[in-house]
Amino acid sequence: MTFTRALSAEFLKLFSTRLWWILALVLFLYVGVMAGGLGALFGWAATGGDASAAGVSPLPPGMNLHAVIYSMASSIGYVFPVLLGAFAVTGEFRHQTLTPTFLATPRRGIVLSAKVVAMLLVGALFGVIAWASTVGLGAAALGAFNLDTALDSSDTWAMVGRGVLAMALWAAVGVGLGALVPSQVAALIIVIAFTQFLEPVLRLVSSFNEVTANIARFLPGAASDSLVGASFYSVAMPGGSAETLFWWQGGLVLLAIAVVTTVAGYFTSWRRDVT
């Protein structure tokens, strides 16, 4: 009963602010425009600009164009559930709402657990929004150039399901990061710097060597791409054809990151005295 009340409180705190729907809206537009634009670009390349021509995927054999385009929902959109999860925690420190929260629910572990569960569910919602955008606009762009959309394939929808799971896990990672780094500004800088610069650079550099490429498979973004089963990075990077983790291994890596950061955050900032 205590956990149920704490979980309800987390949903109430989240949905009473504008942050969640602003992030969701930006996510929908961002990944949708990117997927639709990439689909149109590849469609143009495949047909020479003639939309009535029979299109052939311009990607190397073994790479499914539709999967690369649809998976942009998670391969570039995962930053949004991470930010949502991090802000759900750091906002409590910034606005000093932890004191009444802990007075209502003195067991801090329950509060943090409820926050993780709430963000898992909302992260899954973000996943549905992102994948609906990339599949809808990406398929429209591919169809306009007579390229295969694979919407009738069970593999496509299995990928979508794994992508929604990946977005949920990213939100949980965000909660762990927020608990570990309670400063909202610092958390924002870390998320942006790591997801938009540091990890892409590490993945690019490591792709030129087999040993480092095998290590790079365990980076958070690479693990997420393995869980989904497709990624824009498979085209953008010279080592894109390197062996990846199995989908379930990628999921376990993301889950482990979420658990480790959350537990570390609990034993550091979350257990400190608050005012």
Describe the 3D structure.
The protein is globular and about 65 Å long. The chain starts with a helix and ends in a 5-residue tail after the last helix. It has 275 residues and is mostly helical. It has helices at residues 2-15, 19-47, 65-70, 72-75, 79-94, 98-104, 108-144, 154-180, 184-206, 210-216, 220-228, 233-236, 247-270. 44% of the residues are buried. It contains 13 helices and no strands. Helix 1 (2-15) packs across helix 7, helix 5 runs antiparallel to helix 7 (108-144) and helix 9 (184-206) runs antiparallel to helix 10. It has one domain (2-270). The chain crosses the membrane at residues 20-47, 67-89, 116-145, 165-194, 246-267. It comes from Microterricola pindariensis. Keywords: Membrane, Transmembrane, Transmembrane helix. This is ABC transporter permease.
